[in-house]
Amino acid sequence: MKNKKQKIYPGFSLIEMVIAIFIFSLITLVSISVFSSIVLVEKKSQKVQQDLESATTSLELMAKNMKMSNQLDYIIAGDQTGVYMFNASQQICIEYKFDNNNQELQMATATPYYDLNSGGVSCKPADVSYSAYVAIMKKTTGQFNVIKTDIATDKIGMVTVIMTVDGTDHLQLTASFRDYFDIIQ
Do residues 146 and 72 touch, judged by C-beta distance below 8 A? Predict the structure, then answer.
């Protein structure tokens, strides 16, 4: 009788295959998780960048209107702070306000009140009726620090706008008002 030798086939055992599949699956899951995190961070940073660009545009619009305005004054009503002014180049009253409950920067316009007795113009909310407020920046809170216009002393006002976008990013603008009213007319 011949001794039958068992043939040994080269290859992997079942245990080696299971371990290899487990390691491959683990590496795949970690890679997918890292890639997913990178994509989420990139989307979030793009959103933050868009919010900051919108806020910068809003501040530039305010600065442009403020530099062409005079008769700066401010209002504080509950959770809202605002500034209003007479834009001499456009012959309109403009009001900006932060509605902190809605987290919006809002803007409205009005036809100025011309006081024929004093020859002055008023944009006070008590004297004029502002149009419906339009949100020009959402997810925003802020405040206005105002040095009022004093017509009697020809002192033109200045405002500092401090804006918080989406609760994290802070922007600031300081604009001085110019009295172009006599030049434009």
Answer: yes
Which residue type is seen at 114?
Y
Q: Whole-model pTM?
A: 0.70
| Tokens read off for 57 | 């545009």
Q: What's the token pair of residue 18?
A: 């299971």
Q: Residue type for 50, please?
A: Q
| Segments of 23-157 assigned E as strands | 69-77, 80-87, 92-99, 104-110, 113-115, 120-122, 134-138, 140-147
Sign of the CA dihedral running 73, 77, 117, 153: negative
Find residue 148's DSSP bridge partners. none
28 close to 35: Cβ distance less than 8 angstroms = no
- The residues near 121 (Cβ < 8 Å, ≥ 6 apart) are 71, 86, 112, 113, 114, 115, 181
Q: Where are the domains of the chain?
A: 46-184
Angle CA(88)–CA(133)–CA(58) in degrees, nearest 5? Answer: 65
Closest CA to 98 of 132, 143, 56: 143
Give the sheet arrangement for strand 140-147, strand by strand: 140-147, 158-165, 169-176
pLDDT averaged per 10 residues in sequence order, the chain, 185 residues: 69 89 97 96 91 87 83 73 84 88 87 78 86 88 79 72 83 77 48
The token duo for 126 is 């008590």
Place of tokens 């959402």: 138
